[in-house]
Amino acid sequence: MNEIYLAQAVFRLINERRGLIRDTLEFDNVKNMEHYKGLMGELRSLNYLEEEIKNLLDKKEQEEE
Length: 65
Hints:
Layout: H1 3-26, H2 33-64
């Protein structure tokens, strides 16, 4: 399994989870403030993880050039 395939799979999972969280927020399925804070924290974590993976891929690409 190469890095690109793995990254694509991880990005797909991140986007799926992000979509589920946004649906929960958008359709008012938040149970309470703790649930809301947890979802927002998870969104921030997913965004951070996605950005870090992109940076690692960019760095690897630059090293290969």
